[in-house]
Amino acid sequence: MAGRNLVYELYERRLAAQIESGRVPGHVGVILDGNRRWARTRGFGTAQGHKRGADKIEEFLGWAEAAGVRVVTLWLLSTDNLARDPAELSSLLDIIAHAVGELASTGRWHLRLVGAVDLLPAPVAERLRAAVAPGEDAPRGAAGGSDAAGPGAGGAAERADARMQVNVAIGYGGRQEIADAVRDLLRERADAGDSLEDVAATLSEEDITDHLYTKGQPDPDLVIRTSGEQRLSGFLLWQTVHSEFYFCEVNWPAFRRVDFLRALRDYAGRQRRLGR
After folding, report:
1. pTM of the model
2. Catalytically active residues, by annotation
3. Is pLDDT above 60 for 146?
4. Which pick of 57, 76, 77, 102 has the fewest CB atoms within 10 Å?
């Protein structure tokens, strides 16, 4: 066992040495997939798979921080997931709320809740809001984003915060985010006295970008999906137009630092065209 650990450590170091510091993605999005499959292959219950997946999050954030990543977006629960069996969903929501609370309690990262938190059961939504440290971003409701201290107002504060930014996407759907952004924009322009015709005549991509849940943050450079599935499933639809994608066969609870380093190495070796 000791010999195997030594070989693993040497391989880790070799991988890390192959990644130039200037080629590390600034923003990494992660679709944490495969908790249930991991549990099934080991004869565990579904809740154990979700718990093991939640336990992996803090470890992963440490790897990302050490690599020099500045923003991480973790997709923990989609709007589609809300239609799961109530018993499984209740357990999953409790695990997620506990995990977010644990992350917040460290004070190590700047947390932002992204998604339609008001679609969640009220007690869970309150636990998530309470977990976000005072002065940080507070989640918006079904319209996405935040009120006075959220994406529309928190950009400057985030830029002044030297900690790694961590977006926890809960009750998140890419289509809903875009619809919410347009809805917020229309309300804002209506409050300013603009007519629908005025909005239609001047609406730009930047207007929508400025009303997304992730306003004030760079688009993801790299998106990682575990479990072998090769699709985005609606993750950051607007923001990933120029992102690089890395699909890993490993289920999320079994995701290792070497798997992350392989993703970074793969990213570093790509020629990004950014639509040009």
Report:
1. 0.88
2. 33, 81
3. no
4. 102
